[in-house]
Amino acid sequence: MSLDDKVGRHRARFRKVYPYGNTRRPDVRSFVDAITNTTKSFDFQKIQHDYPYYSVPTYLSTSWAVSGAISYATFLEATETFTNQTSYEVIFSSPFAGTPYLAFAPSQSQFSGSDGQETPNVAWWVTGLTSGGFTANFSAPFTGKITYRGVYTTGSYPIYVNRSTDLSGSYAWVSAGSSSLTNQSSLSMSFAALPSLPEYLNYNPVGSTTDELNIGQTIWAVSTSYAVNELSAPFTGIIHFLAMDTTGSDTNPFTANPDTNYPPTGSFSPADITNLYAWYKYDNLLLSGSTNVSAALDKSGNSRHAVMPTAGQQPTYSATGGANNLPYWTGTDAVSGGRYLLAGVAADWTFLHNGSGHTVFIISKTASTEQNYIFGTQTGTGVSLGDSIVRINNTTANLTIGTAASHCISQNFAWTQTSWGKLAFSGSTGGNPDYSVRVNGVDVVSVNESAVPAATTSTQKLGIGSGGGGAYSSAVSFHEVIIYNRELTSSEVSQVESYLSSSYGV
Questions:
Q1: What pairing do the DSSP bridges indicate for beta strands 276-281 and 124-130?
Q2: Which domain holds residue 229?
Q3: Do 192 and 315 sit in the same domain of this protein?
Q4: Distance between alpha carbon 432 and the CA centroid of its chain, in Å?
């Protein structure tokens, strides 16, 4: 009887068991504990290894004092062999903590029988994806091997993983995401920037157990942060993608400890642009219990924290379910007494209305019937000093910049953002146009001032998910809010928007 007859395809699930008293020579290896940053060691002969399935700490750019400063990511990479099959159920040896991004590709040609990146003349897709497994499908009977990769994290991409603890130097940067298509024949798959071009790029449709997702795909452009995927016919559905970079450059292996190389060299941060005034993000929250947000701490370093000390008015926290399945926080719809955050002190926000210049970026979504403030220092009970974005009905929002007695800017624009999207608005006195608004990277407002902005100090704290001082709160969900106290150039706006697109897939 052959070894294959004994153990089948899943050899990694089987291991030798040594009887009591039968010893082997120790195999002691050193490693760096990512949490304590100390060198430790263990005996590999005392370890039983099933699948290459590992939880590795991923460092986020946040303070260690903040709850959730370390997130954990799980990466799985394995192969399966097919013999004249159109579908096969794959069961993970250990389940993920949540539903992963999952993508596979043939790694052995059904024609030559040799390992490599040869692509057979079949389409492939995933159905029934859960934290415990998936079904791989082919458009025609397939003989050969596939390599599938799954990744799940509560933090941000890219993550840095050890593909196998038995193999030194096998670290890799991994980014992943998904896109929802509606009758589209091409797809730009945007992912968090890798240090260099990905060596592996897996992608496939993902649907329910009954979906027939037979679509041909061809990659014709690849960069460190996106790939362009041409489809054989217009497609409606969801495509998962996963990119892996195993080198630090196009020529040199990437072998450094992951703790010292996060974020990757050359990656963009909003702090790379001057005049970053305040920055609030899901990875820098203070939680009251497990479900309430007591503060979004200012990542700019300027200590203009957005807080809510009253428990009954604290936004609610969701650990998953946002864009790219990331955490987020959500307010409630109320004239007063809702759930929201207030940032800084009133005097901090004069630049939002005095014409000196500002640029604001928001990743958010609104409830379908929401009609209150998304962001602002105005109260809604009369014109007051400041800058505000308010949704005035189910399809329209309004940008206003107040002069205490009137508006120097009041402009409506289309807003139906009930799914995650990007909002950017900026301006200063003396430009042409003075002020503008962008929704998902498209200009929707370009307008000049109708009155002289006021130099008077703002009278209200900044409301995030409300108007100034907390008036007219709204059921808006947030991933990130970035505020600069100058008008950015068009190239700088593009940099920030690209960063947001890569982070959230919007």
A1: unpaired
A2: 31-245
A3: no
A4: 34
Do both 228 and 285 map to the same domain?
Answer: no
**DSSP assignment string, 32-95:** EETTTTEEEEEEGGG----SSEEEEEEE-SS-TTSTT-EEEEEEEEEEEEEEEEEEEEEE-SS-
Residue 7 lies in a domain: no
pLDDT in tens, the chain (506 residues): 444 444 344 433 334 333 434 455 666 766 666 556 667 666 655 544 433 333 333 333 222 233 333 456 788 888 888 888 888 899 987 888 889 999 987 765 444 444 444 445 788 899 999 999 999 998 888 888 888 889 998 878 888 887 754 444 567 888 999 888 777 777 778 888 888 778 788 899 999 888 888 888 877 677 778 777 778 778 888 999 998 887 644 343 333 333 333 333 446 789 889 999 999 999 899 998 889 999 999 999 899 999 999 999 999 999 999 988 889 999 999 988 899 999 999 999 999 999 999 999 999 999 877 789 999 999 877 778 889 999 888 889 999 998 888 888 999 998 888 889 999 999 999 877 899 999 988 889 999 988 888 888 888 999 999 999 999 999 999 999 999 999 998 878 888 888 888 788 87
